[in-house]
Amino acid sequence: MTDAWAERLRENRAEKDEFFAEHPQSPIPPDEREAFDGLAYFDPDPAYRVEAMVTRHDDPDPVEMDTTDGRTVRYLHVVTFAFELDGESHELAGYRQAGDDPGTFFLPFRDKTSGQQTYHRGRYMELEAEEGLTDGDTVTLDFNLAYAPFCAYSDTFSCPLPPETNWLETTVEAGERTA
Q1: Which residues are 106's β-sheet partners?
Q2: Which of 114, 97, 116 is nearest to 105 (CA)?
Q3: Are 90 and 111 spatial neighbours (Cβ–Cβ below 8 Å)?
Q4: By its UniProt entry, which InterPro entries does this protein fall under (predicted)?
Q5: d(CA 178, CA 70)
Q6: Is the pLDDT of residue 98 over 90?
Q7: DSSP helix, strand, coil percent of the chain (3-state; round to 5)
Q8: Quick count: other Cβ atoms within 10 Å of Cβ 122?
Q9: Is the pLDDT of residue 36 over 60?
Q10: The pLDDT of residue 119 is above 70
C-alpha cells in the first residue's frame, strides 16, 4: 500500500463526513446532524484493491432492480467484472441507466458483511473509465470506496437493491461499515 493512496482515501472520507454533517442535501436527518461525528469505515486495505477483467455486453440486458420503497428501477447490464478476492474468483455486474455517461458504471453488491458489519441491504461502488471499456481490459475495483446508499441513513431516500447476481459469497471488510 502506498502512503499516498491511503492518505487520499482518508481525505475523501473526511470530505464525505463533512458533507454528511453540514450540507443541506445530507442524508442525515437535520435533527441528528449536530450529534453526527462521522461515518464508520474499515481501515484502508490494499488487499481490497483488485484487478478485474472486463467483459462488455454490446447488447445489454435490461434489469429491473427492486428499491427500498417497493418500486423498481431499470438499469442496463453493460459490463461484467471478473476478479479474484481472497484467492477465489468472483464476478460483479456493472450497470448504468439509459442516458447515463457511458464511462460510468454502477456496482451495487452484497457480501457476507451485509447485515453484520455493513448496511443490511448492500453497498455501492462506482467506477469511472476515462475511455470506453473493451473485452479483456483490466480495471482496478477498489472496495475501500464501497459506501452505503443514502437510504441507510434516512427512509426519505429510495435506493436500488443489489440483484442476486451481485451477492458475493465472500467477506469484504473494506469501505463503509455500520459500526
Answers
A1: 95, 126
A2: 97
A3: no
A4: DUF1684
A5: 23
A6: no
A7: 20, 40, 40
A8: 24
A9: yes
A10: yes
Question: What residue has cell string 443541506?
Answer: 24
Q: What is the model's pTM?
A: 0.93
Closest-CA residue to 168 (of 108, 78, 95): 108
| Ordered alpha helix ranges (H), the chain | 3-22
Q: Among residues of the chain, what percentage have pLDDT more than 70?
A: 99
CA gyration radius for the chain? 16
Q: How far apart are CA 146 and CA 172, in angstroms?
A: 9
CB 153 within 8 A of CB 30: no
Task: Specify the pairing of strand 49-66 against strand 138-142.
Answer: antiparallel
Residues β-bridged to residue 66: 72
d(CA 151, CA 169): 24
Tell me how far the alpha carbon of residue 84 is from its chain's centroid.
17
- 3-class secondary-structure state, position 44: coil
- End-to-end alpha-carbon separation of the chain, Å? 24
Give, in order, the Cα–Cα distances in Å from 28 to each of 18, 21, 49, 150, 154: 11, 7, 29, 8, 7
Where do the domains of the chain lie?
A: 47-177
Stretch 87-112: mean pLDDT: 93
Inter-residue contact 129 to 139 (CB < 8 Å):
yes
Query: What are the backbone dihedrals phi and psi of residue 169, each rounded to the nearest 5 degrees, phi first?
Result: -90, 55
